[in-house]
Design a protein that fits this description.
The protein is an all-alpha fold and 399 residues long. The chain is built from 19 helices and no strands. 79% of the residues lie in helices and 0% in strands.
Length: 399
């Protein structure tokens, strides 16, 4: 399969993967608050994201049965049906039925994520992983922007019922497209055996690599939790936050991911992990400077631009690493497990930044997030044998 064909299908599938995140994280809070639902209940809706963290529990089923398409298409169809159901369910008083419907939505999304991520591993060959990962990050970010900001803005023009109808049509169209993506043949005999996944991940040679997965993005993730509160506490308007930190930040992350994918293709995964990881670390120093020095008001814009761009760079390299660690026959389960490890670090790290800022102040806290990036960089050499094995068994495809 030509690289251009791969990138076409990756764009479609990762747009489909990003769309539900935009609905859950950006649309639901606004939708339910518009209809008078309490902040307490809206806060509890965060529990509905648990399927994205725990999807590894049913990932072996995706590996064992059917093609990737036999999972992706029904899941997108289910999300289309649920979006239509939102037009008749009363949002002002969320019942148990409403909660179950929302949980079904996130579960369908998490399940298609398993299959789509595995499909990306299936089609990756050699350094194609760089271009594939740059494209997948970009497509998912565009979907977040479209589903989140686009749906909320459209609700003022066409009303919420029509927003849900449009989303249902988009999900249904994506379901149809996904079905026609090229199938990749896998060894059925290997897929029929449930390998001990924890044993795969925690054998001695994999322990430092697992630690790398846990720690590579922790500095970036920890900083990100406190960026927007920092803007607010420094007196910046919501318009500035929305325009610079969110909107411009999203597009810069997309640009960074595309460039990061190109860099991975040119210099390889290991060198990209190091140099793009250093770029992530340096970007944290921008916020250290803004928090600790008397700088012009626009200096935070510069810090935000750099942070968003380097986040995309580092993510492209990081996802290339995850793909190189997976066997194609077990890609769904292994990638889901690695993703769960990363999500664990992100969620745990996200639980403490508020306390850190209260005790230490923004400047010291941002400096600590910079230091948190160092252990992950130190562990990169341990991934070299796994990456070299993956690159040696495949070759870049035609462009």
């Amino acid at each position: 399969m030509k690289l251009s064909t791969k990138l076409y299908w990756i764009s479609i599938l990762y747009f489909a993967e990003g769309l539900p995140f935009g609905v859950a994280y950006d649309v639901w809070p606004v939708y339910f608050r518009n209809h008078g639902v309490s902040l307490r209940e809206i806060g509890l809706m965060a529990l509905l994201s648990l399927p994205w963290t725990w999807k590894v529990l049913w990932a072996p089923l995706v590996d064992r049965f059917g093609t990737r398409q036999t999972w992706v298409t029904p899941c997108l169809g289910a999300m289309a049906a649920i979006s239509l159901a939102m037009t008749v369910l009363d949002p002002s008083d969320p019942t148990v039925l409403m909660w179950l419907v929302l949980l079904a939505f996130t579960t369908a999304s998490a399940t298609q994520d398993i299959a789509i991520d595995a499909y990306a591993v299936d089609i990756a060959e050699g350094r194609d992983a760089g271009a594939i990962n740059g494209t997948r990050v970009s497509a998912a970010r565009v979907a977040l922007f479209v589903a989140g900001g686009g749906s909320v803005a459209a609700s003022d023009l066409i009303g919420w019922p029509m927003v849900w109808v449009v989303l249902a049509v988009v999900f249904a169209a994506l379901a149809g497209l996904a079905w026609f993506s090229p199938r990749i043949a896998l060894e059925s005999t290997d897929r029929l055996s449930f390998r001990p996944m924890l044993g795969w991940l925690f054998r001695w040679r994999m322990v430092p690599v697992a630690a790398l997965v846990l720690l590579y993005k922790v500095g970036d993730s920890t900083l990100g939790r406190m960026v927007k509160p920092f803007w607010v506490d420094r007196g910046y308007s919501n318009a500035e936050i929305g325009l610079i930190s969110i909107t411009l930040g999203t597009w810069l992350t997309v640009l960074g991911a595309l460039l990061g994918g190109w860099i991975v293709t040119r210099i390889g995964i290991i060198r990209a992990l190091l140099w793009l990881g250093l770029a992530q670390l340096v970007s944290n120093l921008g916020y250290v400077a803004v928090a600790s020095l008397e700088l012009p008001r626009w200096s935070i814009y510069v810090a935000s631009v750099i942070e968003s761009f380097t986040q995309g760079l580092g993510t492209a390299a990081f996802l290339s690493l995850l793909m190189s660690l997976c066997d194609k026959e077990h890609a769904a389960t292994q990638y889901a497990l690695l993703s769960a490890l990363f999500a664990l670090t992100r969620d745990v790290a996200g639980a403490f930044p508020g306390l850190g800022v209260e005790e230490l102040g923004y400047a010291v806290f941002f400096a600590i997030t910079t230091a948190l990036a160092l252990p992950g960089l130190a562990l990169i050499p341990f991934a070299r044998p796994f990456v070299e094995r993956a690159e040696a068994t495949t070759r870049p495809s035609e462009t």
